[in-house]
Write a structure and sequence with these properties.
259 residues, 2 domains, two-stranded antiparallel ribbon, 14 helices, 59% helix, globular
């Protein structure tokens, strides 16, 4: 090969596009920034509602985050809105929902309460980001376990919580890793035990979740995520693998009930 051809080949390689590995949704900067914002708002909501102040909760009913809107609806239920209004506010806050219209009756009822309710003149309770994280996780897990979501959406909801690990303390990261792995029973079996999760700030748990995310399927009767071991062995996402290799009878998301 002449020097000219070598030069042309080298330039072609330099000009070739480089495809970086896609960053998981939960590791994107936008997801991490939103996790930071959600935790701060959740912590502030918990403090204000403990003092009887309904104004921040009413304001959050218009927030872009369905998690914060649902938390606000629940808190307003403890602050005096009727059960009917509370239930409407909570039902309206889900992963695909948008903030309500300004003239929506349940929203106006909550705003009316917030405008007239007296605030307790007591110091705000001491609440930490971990306290807020626990409530956020309970909201997301409750949604992932209920509703009429597809298995993929349930998994996406679970893994959206991974974004919070970058914005909390080491103690909170260990707690988060443990809580997520408890929803995937095989994680603890393969890692060893809960004590292993405490090592290195929960990284073993997060690593396991990242490596097995595409192989997890939802088992509704157990209300847990299990590993599709055949798909993992083949190196294919469970949805793609099971399109070509249907689940054997008695296995998978809907095994027969035990007699």
């Amino acid at each position: 090969m002449t020097r000219a051809l070598v030069l042309v080949a080298a330039l072609a390689l330099l000009a070739a596009p480089v495809f970086a590995e896609e960053v998981p949704a939960w590791d994107r900067t936008s997801a991490r920034d939103e996790a930071v914002r959600t935790l701060k708002q959740a912590q502030a909501l918990m403090k204000s509602s403990e003092r009887g102040d309904a104004r921040p909760a009413a304001k959050l009913l218009l927030d872009s985050s369905w998690i914060l809107r649902r938390m606000a609806g629940v808190r307003l239920g403890t602050l005096g809105v009727s059960a009917k209004v509370r239930d409407a506010l909570v039902r309206a806050a889900h992963p695909t929902s948008k903030p309500p219209r300004a003239d929506w009756p349940p929203l106006r009822a909550a705003q009316a309460l917030a405008a007239t309710r007296e605030v307790d003149l007591v110091p705000a309770p001491k609440l930490t980001p971990l306290d807020a994280l626990k409530v956020v996780l309970s909201v997301v897990v409750q949604e992932s376990q209920g509703g009429k979501h597809s298995p993929a959406v349930r998994r996406d909801l679970l893994f959206s919580l991974m974004a919070y690990r970058a914005s909390v303390s080491r103690e909170a990261r260990v707690w988060l890793a443990t809580a997520l792995c408890r929803l995937c029973p095989e994680a603890l079996l393969e890692i060893g035990d809960v004590k292993q999760l405490a090592k290195r700030g929960g990284r073993e748990g997060f690593r396991w979740l990242e490596e097995n995310e595409r192989y997890l399927f939802w088992q509704p009767r157990a209300a847990r995520f299990w590993v599709d071991k055949a798909a993992r062995k083949a190196g294919q996402a469970t949805e793609a693998y099971r399109r070509a290799h249907p689940w054997p009878k008695g296995q998978g998301p809907r095994p027969p009930r035990s007699s």
